[in-house]
Amino acid sequence: MAMFDAVSWLDAWLASYPWETSAEQAGQLLIRAATALPTNTRVALHKETVARLPVLRASSGDPHAWHKGSAVYDLACCLYEKQLPYTEQDIVALLTSSKHDCGHGADVKAPFETAVAWARVHGVTPAWLAAVRTFIEGLRGIRSVKANDVKTKSGLVLLLDGESFASLPPGERAAWERLVLHMSTATGPRMPKGYDVQAGALVAFVGIERVLACLDRWLPRPELPCKLDTAGSHLLRNLVWLLLFMSRDVAAATSCDELVERLIRVDVVPEQLGKKVAVACAVYFAQRPLAVGRRPLETLLARTEAMEKVASDGDNIRKIVVDYLTRTTDPMPSGVEVRGGTGDT
Question: Is residue 345 very low, low, confident or very high in pLDDT (cuts 50, 70, 90)?
């Protein structure tokens, strides 16, 4: 069977389409023709549509250039939604060939989201990380909401390229990578939905003692100021959620408490990013027994008031602390067994 030539197929379709009479319907008809092709063929065609878009945007002298670009754009967006069986090479091609000018299109976040979905199943590789960096570099200077969201999320994911994760044994590193790929960049005062499932998978594979040992080594200490960027602040927030999950284990709870209380005493630079972490610490201790949470929450509130610049974060922490201190019963039942440790380290 001859190999499918996506370039020739797309060239032929664009050349034969009656642009003079029905340009507005081109996108819908191109999608219909493409989705009738075999699945693997659609992967090749998807790569070609993404690579072709910058060329069509730069076209001059073709009276139908805009409509052709619109039709190919519609197909590219449609194929992102199809969950096609990509290989690592396919993902790298989509990331590195995707180009954007304004950052408002439906195809701005799709390459990164497709890459993350692939890596959650197949794992993170050096080529994958390099392609993500290339994609994000292409968004430099674009300040749309979609572009900024992708840059924030990618910053967190690209921390996987750091020495802390690289030094782990392969199986353990893969388990941590899966957790990071599921981490959220939301800043609300609650554990992200579904995060406990991913935290449980990590603990079950690695073992709770090993996870605690890693966190003890990675988390900053109060002896020196901790300089954070946005990605680092999101990572610390998510690690607090991991500790909150593990604190359900009675035997591990004290160690979890000590690590989160240590974070409370760290001076973070800039302070605003530190306050984002502090909200997660407040949520953590607000779900611990009164005998455990009172002192660190009072300490946290005092530190927050001393450095307060933005009302919303301070108000969140203050409300969490006041609600907690007015309780007469513990906020959660005794812990459950979450030890795990079935993986190879």
Answer: very low
